[in-house]
Amino acid sequence: MKRIAIGILAVIATAPFVSQPVLALREAGTVVAQNTQSQPKVALRLGAEKKIVRKNPQGKPQVGWQTLQGNVVVQPGDTLRYVVTGKNNSNAAVRNFVVTQPIPKQTTYVLNSVTAKNKAKVTYSINNGKTFVEKPTVQVKLANGKVQTRPAPAEAYTHVRWKFEQPIAPTAVVNGTYQVRVR
User: Fold this and answer.
1) pTM of the shown model
2) Residue of 129, 104, 123, 120 whose CA lies nearest to 161
3) Are 159 and 132 in contact (CB under 8 A)?
4) The CATH number of the domain where 82 resides is what?
5) pLDDT tens, position by position, 94-144
6) Which of 2, 17, 87, 92 could form a disulfide with 39 if both were Cys (CB 3.0 to 4.6 A apart)?
7) Angle ∠(12,15,19) on CA atoms, nearest 5
């Protein structure tokens, strides 16, 4: 059986304050998203968990999540859940905060697995982050030569994006999760 080593991936975050550029710094597992014009800071942490299914005393399956740290080995078919957490480390509210997370190349996105603890608009990319939409679609050529629009398959997803609609208050925490299956 093929084994795959993965590591925790980078998080891309933006806080578009007056359309100024954002700088992301990585410090010991934490990414700090900061506007280069001395705007509020949001510290980001990306965690990963592996789905574990055990049987309870009655013999029914029970789902749990095992936290993964550093470089780990996973097997094809394993389901992983990535957890992106952001904390506003400033004294001012952060507005229009956006987090973009790539789907790891050796995995497939699990459809409808995205969550957000706080109100966020979730969009997806199927073209390596060039564009984002709520419900990606693809054009499929049928046997009769006609072209039909269909929902994009899970394998086509390349990125997940959360746009937090409400300002993030000082010291407040926001988070989002998504699941992938190892190929």
Assistant:
1) 0.78
2) 123
3) yes
4) 2.60.40
5) 999 999 999 999 999 999 999 998 889 999 999 999 999 999 999 999 999
6) 17
7) 115
